[in-house]
Amino acid sequence: MVVDWAMMRVMSVKDTGIRWINGDRLAHLDFVDDIVLLENSWKGMKELTDRTQKEAAKFGLNINPEKTKIMKVGRWDETEDEKIMIDGKEVKSVDAFCYLGSLMTAVSSCDREVKVLIGKANVTFGKLAKIWKKNGCSTKTHVAHPTSL
Prior knowledge:
Blueprint: H1 2-10, E1 18-19, E2 25-26, E3 28-31, E4 34-37, H2 42-58, E5 69-70, E6 85-86, E7 89-90, E8 92-93, E9 96-99, E10 102-105, H3 111-135, H4 139-144
Parallel strand pairs: 5-8
Antiparallel strand pairs: 1-2, 3-4, 6-7, 9-10
């Protein structure tokens, strides 16, 4: 609730975020204590990050600079003149990161995400094979009756 209030104050500045449907603007996505800030330019992202940090501090909240990442999606016409800083520490720029269990990439490709999910499924099925063998049941039985584990 406090995060929502702080973000509402941050977003009160006109022209914050990216253009959205019907001329509206989308500037952030929230999930519990995770926030994604959206901007069209490096300068805009720096200003949005600074405003978010200042508003959060008014409520006793801190942004963790080690967990904070910047990812440019698409092309920004301007250069990265100034570093984006939080508590005197530079925010790292990345090409991909995991958000809410999904891999987000700067090129908006899902290839890496699919490979990660296949890898996770492979590990899980590898663990199930050990359980199936231990119980003396065939794989065919467990596939037909997955609740028999």
